[in-house]
Amino acid sequence: MAEPAKAVRYFQTDARYDYRIELLQLVLDKSQSKFGPATLQAETTNMSHGRGELSLENGLIDVAFFATNKIREQKFTAIKYPILQGILGYRILLVHKDRQADFAAVTTLSQLASDFIGGFGSHWADKKILEDNRLKITASPLYQNLFAMLNAKRFDYFPRGINEIWHESQQLAPDYRNIVIEKSLALYYPYPVYFFVNKRNSRLAQRIQLGLTKSLQDGSLKQLFLKYHLQDIQRSQLHKRKILMLENHQLPAGTAKPDSQWWLKRIENVG
Hints:
It is built from twelve helices and twelve strands. The chain has helices spanning 18-30, 32-35, 49-57, 70-75, 100-104, 109-115, 127-132, 143-151, 165-172, 202-217, 220-236, 261-264, and strands at 6-10, 38-42, 63-67, 76-79, 90-96, 117-121, 136-140, 157-161, 179-181, 185-188, 193-198, 242-245.
């Protein structure tokens, strides 16, 4: 009789996470010969990041895809490979259409900090990074509310990963006609995203590590990354933007910066 597939439970289910979910399935498939069959099981309850972390801590889910920081690495086991290849650290701004010209005049981080207010998720790990760099932030616990708040000018900009902003902008257009993508700026801070599991689940941690190693060796991980992100990388045109550099003091000591150079070179292939 065939061994029954083990269910691996996760909570981050919306379209922002499609790449991470497919990568997790790839990793489970690559490690099947040693660990047996596994299938993904989505948690159907809509969870905030805060509740998701608590669910991982309590064993109600098995794996999460989080940006790393000191606190998360103390609470959970991090499989320390940056699955997003550093792309989430590059941020482009959603802004109100009336403010486009105001942002075009920004050339330094201090200008952005003194003249504008950003919007951000109250439970997102990089909120503290923005605050540490003296950026003024208005926070909301609900991701969806941030778009309505920007549309109503309750803050001035909403920084989004270049892997997020184009899809979100397309989705938003019918409901939030005042929101546009800012044309001249980008933010950057080192922000590696790892798979995290409960500290008691060493077997799953070993399995994910093995699957990542195999998918790196055969090229399937980078192939999957480009399948999801190449178009966004190219249309972001980072080489034509003023990139404002932020420090990330939330990283554990010795955290390696993700290697982004291999995919940044792809930008040179377009105008």
